Amino acid sequence: MASDFNQMPVHAAITAIAHDFHRRGWMAGTAGNLSTRSKDGKGLWITSSGLPKGKLDTRDLILMGLEGNEIQQRLRDDARPSAETSIHQTIYTLFPNAQACFHIHTVDACLATAKIEPQTQSMPLPPLEMIKGLDIWEESPQVALALFDNRLDVPSIAHEIHKRFTAEPPQIPALMIRNHGITVWGGSLQQTYNRIEIIEFIMSYIARQ
Ligand SMILES: [Zn+2]
Q1: Segment 96-111, tens digit of pLDDT
Q2: CATH architecture entry for 5-208
């Protein structure tokens, strides 16, 4: 196996990351979705809906545009898009440098976000050494993660993300959805992988405080 996900064929890398996150309990059952921007930049390859992430294979990805529900390319006839695709579409639309976007459901993210007062839209982060891994090089940094309310209708969460980030870009390339999970993006698969490990580390810390 290559030492870096950026060195692997994209579909193989996403499959390996899904298996890794499933082993860690970050993509239990069919939860969560992983995507990468397509080569032409006009769409995204994303894990198709309703599949157990621990058993995902390289054909379980679909090509979607940056908006809408229409599948542009599928490798299996029964593949279907997840409602959470709208969150990925919003991230790639807002951030032209984003090449990968991961969305996971973790116990610690649920516990940590549940500690934040209702109606509060940001989550201050403790000044941990690990924050340097998010490219923040300050003594005792004062940074916060954007926090969104969970809704049954995921496209409405995506709409809220678009609205809020257009008005005020986030300090950190990540966002939290209350009682739901973590979404992180980056300039490559490996960078996004590294960042989500850091965010989850911070969530574990907050959950245990
Ligand atoms: Zn989710």
Answers
A1: 999 999 999 999 999 9
A2: 3-Layer(aba) Sandwich (3.40)
